[in-house]
Amino acid sequence: VTLDDLRAEFGDRVSRLVEAETENKRHGIPASDTWEIRKSEAIEHLKDREADVKMIVLADKTANLESLVKEWRQVGDNVWEKFNQTDKKKQEWYFKSIRERLTELSDTSVMKKFNEYIELLFDSR
């Protein structure tokens, strides 16, 4: 789906919000080669984003972690093998960096769940 498709179907605001949360995938380059660059950009872009974008990012990343936790409970740390970035420490850096950028949402129930998932995946040994 293109941004023009989204704009036509849902309007400017929704397409703007989706665009704000969409990574530059750098087509033609293997995703594993650009993972750290893309994630660093995503973290940096969050610094100056409006609250509605930050809420979407938090909801998206929390849903991602929820799925990860479910699979992690089945296969343990082998869960990381399916990703472009298989290094658990780098995944930890990414999710914890996202959390640092979303501190104004720290009192929300979604952030509390996000933190719970981070603790399960990265802080429990």
General description of the model:
- The chain has 125 residues and is mostly helical.
- It contains six helices and no strands.
- The protein has helices spanning 3-10, 12-21, 31-46, 51-75, 88-101, 109-123.
- The radius of gyration is 15 Å and the shape is globular.
Report the uncertain regions. Answer: none
Category by helix and strand content: mainly alpha
Q: What's the order of the H and E elements?
A: HHHHHH
Largest sheet: none
Question: Any descriptors?
Answer:
about 120 residues, about 0% strand, globular, mainly alpha
Brief write-up:
This protein is an all-alpha fold and 125 residues long. It has helices at residues 3-10, 12-21, 31-46, 51-75, 88-101, 109-123. It is globular.
Indicate the topology.
Layout: H1 3-10, H2 12-21, H3 31-46, H4 51-75, H5 88-101, H6 109-123
Helix pairs in contact: 1-2, 2-4, 3-5, 4-6, 5-6
